[in-house]
Design brief:
3-methyladenine DNA Glycosylase II, Chain A, domain 3, 467 residues, globular
Length: 467
């Protein structure tokens, strides 16, 4: 349970030295309890007190890193949540989506494996400044060792970081195998990806834990009931392993209803009841919950994006499945207290060079996303200029003084725009046409053109504009 301000005060040196920046030790303790200051701000805390407070201040859900990263991309982080609902504060680490590869040839032959991987790994697009792609591949192995090796090698070849679909993207490989002896060579072959080893249960947790711990891998844990899962996690923690994922839904008798109930109960137990044994990210295999039913799987993926699947596995993931799911995820896992912004700068669109027309809009991510999409659809090369407008929409930024003639002129002159582009025609949003005169005075040599009021009018406007 988190320590209160008075509990923290009792552990302070009580000297009121002000070295922490607070007037008294009591004031400092209250700020630490509220999360406004880290306990490390006090240079005089005893090591024992620091350890006790740091442990109590940890989020009720542990943060687990999965995947080794590739081409400079960092591993993915899961967990670390402190609230049940987004509106309470914010959700920290977004869930990941993956596809299931079944090593059983009767269920999935080589052609089906190749088709699933090609579709999933080829799904790659950008939305509001975030790259959307399939982050995980989940392999379910059989008792056939030769077949297991062959399927793993097939997947590893497709996931090779040097291949075009994988460049700059960190993929997570999950290996489902309940036999530690059979899993050992598979883990060794996939060690470069730092895979997640899945399949630990009440009957085999010791051997699976020994293998995962020896390789420094996260371990996926399941159970026939929540009670069994809780007991197994307690044993793993007592053995020193806190690098875990919780499997939602009993693999032996999968049920969407039970998996969803488990997701909610586990999250509530961790956050509301402070039961840290259940404070781990979760894994849900929708291919097992609704086999062969892509529509139900897509619906369940939306449900578990909201409540509370950290890794969500489907049978397939193409653009039809991805567009709504990734849009939902992006909406849920953005901070509602902060505007979504893109980095100010020059964004060449449609093969724009230094002679291309310049257009201006704000750094609000949704505005940028819509405007850049319409410009691209027009086929006209454009250098889109994005100044720092506080992450607001056009009219809001103008009303707040974040988008003004002086700020735009400063961005163009001091932001290096004039040194990059030669075209001196600037199209400004129609809703701030009032800036035209001031911009012409502030930017001698530039022609200021008032553009349309709405993004939907951009295509026609650019095609008819002769510059």
């Amino acid at each position: 349970m988190a320590l209160k301000g008075l509990d923290i005060f009792k552990l302070t040196p009580k000297t009121n030295c002000k070295d922490c920046g607070s007037p008294t030790c009591m004031a400092f303790a209250m700020k630490v309890a509220q999360g406004a200051l880290p306990i490390s701000k006090c240079p005089h805390m005893a090591p024992e007190a620091l350890a006790k407070i740091s442990e109590a201040a940890e989020p009720p859900m542990k943060t687990v890193e999965v995947g080794a990263g590739s081409d400079g991309a960092p591993p993915h982080k899961l967990g670390g949540e402190t609230v049940m609902f987004r509106h309470e504060k914010t959700l920290v680490h977004q869930n990941l989506y993956g596809v299931r590869i079944d090593a059983d040839a009767a269920r999935m032959d080589d052609a089906a494996i190749d088709a699933t991987l090609a579709e999933a790994l080829g799904m790659d697009y950008e939305r509001i400044g975030e790259r959307m792609y399939v982050e995980c591949v989940y392999i379910v192995f059989t008792s056939d060792a030769a077949r297991n090796r062959a399927v793993l090698q097939r997947v590893l070849a497709a996931l090779d970081p040097g291949h075009a679909p994988n460049q700059g993207k960190s993929r997570v490989l999950l290996l489902e195998c309940a036999d530690a002896a059979a899993a050992a060579p598979l883990v060794e072959a996939a060690q470069g990806f730092k895979p997640v080893l899945c399949g630990a249960r009440a009957a085999n947790w010791e051997t699976m834990n020994a293998l995962a711990s020896s390789k420094g891998l996260a371990l996926g844990v399941g159970g026939a009931t929540l009670e069994e899962l809780h007991d197994t996690v307690e044993k793993l923690e007592a053995a020193g392993n806190k690098n875990l994922l919780l499997r939602l839904g009993d693999p032996a008798a999968p049920s969407a209803k039970d998996a969803f109930a488990s997701a909610v109960q586990i999250r509530r137990a961790a956050l509301k009841d402070q039961d840290r044994t259940f404070g781990y990210p979760s894994l849900v295999d929708l291919a097992a919950l609704a086999p062969g039913d892509s529509v139900t799987q897509a619906a369940l993926a939306a449900v578990f994006t909201l409540r509370y699947g950290s890794i969500v596995i489907l049978e397939r993931m193409g653009y039809a499945e991805a567009l709504p799911l990734y849009g939902l995820r992006q909406n849920i896992f953005t901070d509602p207290q902060k505007p979504m912004k893109v980095t100010p700068g020059i964004y060449p669109i449609g093969g724009a060079d230094e002679d291309a027309l310049c257009c201006l809009t704000v750094d609000f991510a949704l505005t940028y996303f819509v405007v850049s999409g319409e410009i691209e659809r027009s086929g006209v090369p454009v250098n889109l200029l994005i100044p720092d407008a506080g992450g607001y929409s056009v009219l809001t930024a103008w009303a707040a003084g974040k988008l003004s003639a002086s700020s735009v002129a400063k961005f163009i002159k001091e932001g290096g725009v004039e040194g990059v582009v030669k075209n001196r025609t600037l199209v400004i949003p129609g809703k701030v046409a009032v800036l035209k005169g001031e911009l012409e005075a502030s930017l001698p040599g530039w022609e200021i053109v008032v553009g349309p009021n709405e993004a939907v009018q951009i295509v026609r406007f650019l095609k008819t504009l002769k510059r």
